[in-house]
Design brief:
By secondary structure, the chain is an alpha+beta fold. Helix content is about 25%, strand content about 25%. It is globular.
């Protein structure tokens, strides 16, 4: 854990973010804001004494069972898939006694949408994401990376998301 904290401290320092030191076992996660207008954080500091919950990558549920299971139409566009994945993640977190406000880190894998010439639909993803993070009901944001990948486990999936949440 010490090595991980050191790595995070170096990563935060390299971002030019200054955070107040917290004693081990402090109750609050430090969310490094960076640009307040950004939908994501510059970084996060997780205090000792907390529980980390790391969820494996989650994929979307089918939204139209009348379509072939291996077709994008069965799962929807990037925004629809994002909302479905985040609802799945929310359910898994609730089962652990956590919520979306406890998510501190997210990695997003987007496949290029054939309807967009093979480019990832970052706008659609962002619209889905914005329903869960930085809202009046759930104001917390996360440290996040979003990358385009060649493919996911099914040719129908445009979105896969993995998260790390912090519990007390």
């Amino acid at each position: 854990m010490t090595m991980a904290r050191t790595g995070l401290a170096l990563a935060v320092a390299s971002l030019g973010v200054v955070a107040a030191a917290q004693p081990a076992g402090a109750a609050e996660v430090v969310r490094h804001i960076g640009n307040p207008q950004s939908p994501i954080l510059s970084g996060v500091t997780v205090p000792g004494g907390t529980t980390l919950v790391m969820l494996s990558g989650q994929v979307p549920p089918a939204v139209d069972s009348s379509k072939p299971a291996d077709s994008i139409d069965a799962y929807g566009d990037t925004k629809t898939q994002t909302v479905g994945v985040l609802k799945r993640i929310e359910g898994l977190l609730v089962a652990q006694g956590l919520g979306m406000g406890d998510v501190v880190r997210m990695t997003v894998f987007l496949v290029g949408d054939p309807k967009l010439g093979g480019k990832m639909d970052f706008k659609g993803f962002s619209e889905g994401y914005a329903q869960f993070f930085g809202t009046a009901a759930q104001p917390n944001k996360v440290a996040r990376s979003t990358v385009q990948v060649a493919a996911l486990a099914s040719p129908a999936f445009l979105v896969e998301i993995e998260v790390t949440a912090v519990g007390k």
